[in-house]
Q: What sequence folds into this?
């Protein structure tokens, strides 16, 4: 069960890189609630689909992958991830982030909260 959940999350990442929304139906519950780290919220698969398609009009996802997974309780997974993208005009975008994912009884994502750090890491006191 845990490996299947990780695979569903990995498919979500692959969808962004491949610009293919098709697998979404098997990943999310119909009444999914998705919250981006910027505060935007999407309720239901249709709103996620609209966001996905709109995002890809102006951006290209270059890399999006899980660093690791932490499974909690029976229905919660925490995922550390890395995202690298370019706007169509060539401006780089990146994020190191965390997802808190809640699963329903059918092992579909019913809630996803995203937290992210959108700046490059630096060491201001490196010697």
A:
């Amino acid at each position: 069960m845990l490996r299947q959940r990780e695979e569903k999350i990995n498919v979500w990442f692959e969808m962004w890189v491949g610009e293919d929304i098709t697998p979404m139906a098997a990943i999310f519950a119909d009444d999914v609630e998705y919250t981006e780290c910027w505060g935007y919220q999407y309720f239901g698969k249709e709103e996620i689909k609209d966001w996905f398609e709109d995002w890809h009009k102006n951006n290209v996802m270059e890399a999006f992958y899980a660093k690791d997974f932490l499974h909690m309780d029976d229905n919660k997974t925490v995922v550390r991830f890395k995202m690298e993208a370019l706007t169509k005009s060539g401006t780089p975008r990146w994020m190191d982030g965390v997802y808190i994912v809640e699963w329903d009884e059918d092992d579909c994502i019913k809630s996803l909260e995203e937290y992210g750090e959108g700046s490059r890491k630096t060491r201001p006191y490196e010697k």
